[in-house]
Amino acid sequence: MILRITSLVLLLSLVAFTPSIANSQSAATNSDLITLTVTVKNKRGNLVAGVPRESFEILDDKEARPIESFANEDSPVSIGLLVDTSGSMQFYENKDIARAAAIGDALSHFVEMSNPKSEFFVLAFDSTPRNLTDWKIGDELSSQKISISPQKKDTALYDAIIMGLDKFASAHYSRHVLILFTDGQDNNSKSTFMQVRERLKKSDISLYAIGIMTPSDVGSALGMEGEGILDELTAVSGGESLYPHDKKEMAGAIDAVASELRHQYRISFLAPRTKTDWHRVRIKVTPRVNAPTEFKSLSARTRQGYYSQ
């Protein structure tokens, strides 16, 4: 996936619109309340905020569902930061981006760009994942000195993601995001790719990946495998993979993710319980007839579906 910088945010203001969560009735005993985190962009790849509720349509296995609650506001998020410190991240032809200091700077920049009330934890991983901090708000995290220096050569990527997903059991906010800095390679996990994918499918956690590839990785079988793994895991969760090649592009990727998290929609619907476990979900956005050109063609990204309870 080509790196796209989407720090430009367009505000649709054709009608008066105040972001708010609608009051909804308790879910019926034979239904589940499903909440989706939705990102809206125009055909240029710019984020679009302020799209009214009536422009959205939820398709649950191709069947339209009424919207129960709707919000488009800059609210705090619980965010996990996972940093790959394994050997494959250190032997780069381009040392400018691979060094721990560069990733540390990126983490600090991301915290600064995020909602000031958001909370964070930090995990590092090589042969095993290790917890560097528990939940902290941005100011607390910025004031703490964290070492993300490499320790071992092997990579337990899948184990680290599972450990990161488990941490959200103690999160304080309803919106959960996991951001991964890695090359997508794993050679030491007890967990498997399919187990990670299933965990993501069963959760409402959005996974974003900052894929760090060496010039020799780009286009190679190993590099394409790493990108394929990251693209598949981020897509199923409604997140995205970005692949910066230097410090400038790294900063752009961080800006893009931070801005996206502050301009997303939270949309809920009641899903009847059925015998079908996995349900495919799609969000359709229909702009108003008199919408400006930049708002005519909109796309919505969210997680691929949900499991019936």
What's the short version?
The protein has helices spanning 95-98, 100-113, 138-143, 157-167, 193-201, 221-237, 247-261, and strands at 9-11, 31-42, 47-49, 56-60, 63-65, 67-71, 78-84, 119-125, 129-137, 176-182, 205-211, 241-242, 265-272, 278-285, 298-301, 305-307. It is of the alpha/beta class and 309 residues long. It has a six-stranded mixed beta sheet with strand order 9-8-7-10-11-12, with helices on both faces.
Task: Set down the secondary structure blueprint.
Elements: E1 9-11, E2 31-42, E3 47-49, E4 56-60, E5 63-65, E6 67-71, E7 78-84, H1 95-98, H2 100-113, E8 119-125, E9 129-137, H3 138-143, H4 157-167, E10 176-182, H5 193-201, E11 205-211, H6 221-237, E12 241-242, H7 247-261, E13 265-272, E14 278-285, E15 298-301, E16 305-307
Parallel strand pairs: 1-3, 7-8, 7-10, 10-11, 11-12
Antiparallel strand pairs: 2-13, 2-15, 4-5, 4-14, 6-13, 8-9, 14-16
Please mark out the parts with pLDDT under 50 across 5 or more consecutive residues, or reply none: 1-6, 13-27
Which class of the largest domain in CATH terms? Answer: Alpha Beta
Which band does the percent of strand residues land in?
25-35%
Principal-axes geometry comes out as globular
Task: Give the spatial strand order of the biggest sheet.
Answer: 9-8-7-10-11-12
Largest sheet: 6 strands, mixed
| Average pLDDT rating | 86
Can you count the helices? 7
CATH topology of the largest domain: Rossmann fold
Proportion of helical residues = 10-25%
Number of domains: 2
